[in-house]
Amino acid sequence: MTHAIVARQAGGPEVLEYAEVDPPVPGPSQLLVKVGAVGVNFIDTYKRSGVYKVAYPFTPGSEAAGTVAGLGEGVTGFAEGDRVATAEGTNCYAGYAVVDADKALPVPQGLDDPTAAALPLQGMTAHFLMNSTFKVEAGHTVLLHAGAGGVGLLMLQLLKAKGATVVTTVSTDEKERLALDAGADHVLRYSGFTEAVRDITNGRGADVVYDGVGKDTFDGSLAALRIRGTLVLFGAASGPVPPVDPQRLNAGGSLFLTRPTIAHHLLDAAERRWRSDEIFAAAADGSLKVRVGGKYPLAEAAQAHRDLEGRRTTGKVVLIP
């Protein structure tokens, strides 16, 4: 037997039960993973609460790191004892989980389980945004909203490593310090950010804006772009953006607008490995600092959800089975 978090109905954090369960059995092309740490994400709270429909009983969690404990039929390239992580698992709030072998990411030596569990989703998101959605190069000026968030803190460091000038927005003094520590060249509050970007760039505007905030920043983000600049809308923390008249892109200077998602940037094992290998290598050699802001025992998953939803956490929240 092992333990897992089980929700038997939709509801608040109190529906998350710490229960004794049978360990899962890996099917063909799957790995059985002894979970060392689980990444907690907002999507887990949406599934728990019923915002996203799931079948109950339900065990949350798609992001985890641990050790291979068993191999399903037909698995090649992995052996028992290998350390792996994933952003695309299922039922990961548990002592053991099964992971499709082609969605398992090798973890390098020197990276502990909490750090490895904190990286896949946000790290590979940062990677595709700046390498595939818009290829950032030295000399580009980038406006990145929410620079002290999970994706933001990683992107700040990666953008600076590419030689970009990075302008970011935050909401508090504490977040400003975090963004500066991560390498931001200019840290702004949200009020008046468009004019500030214009001033910083001598009226030219940013080459690209990465906007995970959505409704509240969208208009200002468009207005902060240079001619033929690109707005990458990758989230909606403040709510969804209303329908947009394409003529606005013309009027703004032949602008580009895109709304990418991670699923379309992890199309096969080779693409996953490219992204994860670069992110994990940077974390392992210390050039990419990963902020794990809260570690909770698996049995305290409900409290982790309360703190996450109450905005009482910084950095990544992880569960330890």
What this model shows, in words?
The strands form three sheets. Strands 3, 4, 5, 6, 7, 14 and 15 form a seven-stranded mixed sheet that branches. The chain starts with a strand and ends with a strand. Helices cover 29% and strands 27% of the residues. It is globular and about 65 Å long. Helix 3 crosses helix 4 and helix 3 (120-133) crosses helix 9. Strand 11, helix 7 and strand 12 (225-233) form a beta-alpha-beta unit. With 321 residues, the protein is α/β, with parallel strands linked by helices. The longest helix has 16 residues, at 269-284.
List the helices and strands and how they pair.
Layout lengths: L1 E6 L8 E6 L8 E11 L1 H8 L13 E9 L11 E4 L9 E5 L4 E2 L6 H6 L1 H14 L7 E4 L5 H12 L3 E6 L2 H9 L4 E4 L3 H8 L5 E6 L6 H6 L1 E9 L13 H5 L4 E3 L10 H16 L7 E6 L3 H9 L6 E5 L1
Parallel strand pairs: 8-9, 8-11, 9-10, 11-12, 12-13, 14-15
Antiparallel strand pairs: 1-2, 3-4, 3-6, 3-15, 4-5, 5-7
Helix pairs in contact: 3-4, 3-9
What order do the helices and strands follow? EEEHEEEEHHEHEHEHEHEHEHEHE
Q: Rg to the nearest angstrom?
A: 20 Å
Number of helices: 10
Which word captures the global form? globular
| Poorly predicted parts | none
Count the E strands.
Answer: 15
**Helix coverage percent of residues?**
25-40%
Q: Which structural category do the helix and sheet elements fall into? A: alpha/beta
Ends distance: 13 Å
The biggest sheet, with number of strands, parallel, antiparallel or mixed sense and barrel status, is: 7 strands, mixed
Report the average pLDDT across residues: 96
Strand content: 25-35%
